[in-house]
Amino acid sequence: MLEMNNISKVYQSDMVQTHALREFNLSVNEGEFIAVTGPSGSGKTTFLNIAGMLEPYTGGQYLLDGTDVGKLNDNALAELRNQKIGFIFQGFNLIPDLNLYENIEVPLRYRGIKSNERKRRIEECLEQVGLAARAKHLPQQLSGGQQQRVAIARALAGKPRFLLADEPTGNLDSLMARQVMELLEQINRDGATIIMVTHDPDLARRAPRNIQVVDGQLADFSLYQGAPEIIT
Ligand code: ADP
Ligand code: ADP
């Protein structure tokens, strides 16, 4: 379970303060699939980065499976992140001169996972995203949708409980976006909790729970009757 209580985030640059999040409250249960929408600059990426422990927050309390994230030192943060969190980004972030197998292997090596276990996980994850036959191919030999599936396989290889996706379909045409969404739905059925930022109202509506970030605060439609008007 992920719980944010009155989280705030203030960016300070030169003389300018930006309140990216203010009094942000959210509870996410194990197994949920949440779509996050909201205007550009409203705080979606900041929220996701804080949830993934990539950025510190400036106030409030964040509990991840009962652990108070604010009390952890850098090593403990990295360990918790490695244990629980997987990321997917709009730009895929694959390394161009490594093949698919090697791309998925990089974070596993970094975590000190032994070579036979790495091989087992990589083959399983490539199978899961339907790219087992392409293990030796370079990213540029694949379509955008296939590249995103490799990035998803790379995240899955870490066996995350929480998969955080920032505009995962932002660079994809609508057919490929739908295929990536179907893959995320399958991963969610297999047990991972998913939080996905998206500008695509059609994809957002497919998610069982929609939340919207407006001016750094949360509007949670699961609390209201009726269909939300999705602002993107
Ligand atoms: P998106 O709106 O697609 O999430 P970004 O997260 O890249 O785009 O950026 C959101 C906003 O944050 C942009 O207006 C950008 O100018 C601003 N921003 C990002 N990084 C910085 C920074 N280091 N200093 C000031 N503003 C920043
Ligand atoms: P979104 O993802 O909804 O587009 P962001 O979380 O990227 O919004 O940004 C929220 C606010 O914080 C924006 O006003 C943005 O300009 C500001 N911001 C984001 N990153 C930085 C940064 N590194 N330094 C200063 N301001 C930032």
Notable traits:
232 residues, alpha/beta, Rossmann fold, six-stranded mixed sheet, four-stranded antiparallel sheet, globular, binds adenosine-5'-diphosphate
How are the secondary structure elements laid out?
Elements: E1 2-13, E2 16-28, E3 33-37, H1 44-51, E4 59-64, E5 67-68, H2 74-84, E6 85-89, H3 100-110, H4 115-128, H5 144-156, E7 162-166, H6 174-189, E8 193-197, H7 201-206, E9 209-214, E10 217-220
One adenosine-5'-diphosphate binds at residues 13, 40-41, 45.
Summarize the structure.
With 232 residues, the protein is an alpha/beta fold.
Structural write-up:
With 232 residues, the protein is α/β, with parallel strands linked by helices. Helices cover 34% and strands 27% of the residues. Strands 6-7-8-3-9-10 form a 6-stranded mixed β-sheet, sandwiched between helices. Strands 2-1-4-5 form a 4-stranded antiparallel β-sheet, covered by helices on one side. Helix 3 crosses helix 4, helix 4 packs across helix 5 and helix 5 packs parallel to helix 6. 39% of the residues are buried. Bound molecules: adenosine-5'-diphosphate (2 copies). One adenosine-5'-diphosphate binds next to strand 1, strand 2 and helix 1. GO terms for molecular function: ATP binding; ATP hydrolysis activity; transmembrane transporter activity. Belongs to the ABC transporter superfamily. Macrolide exporter (TC 3.A.1.122) family. This is ABC transporter, ATP-binding protein. One of its GO terms (cellular component) is plasma membrane.
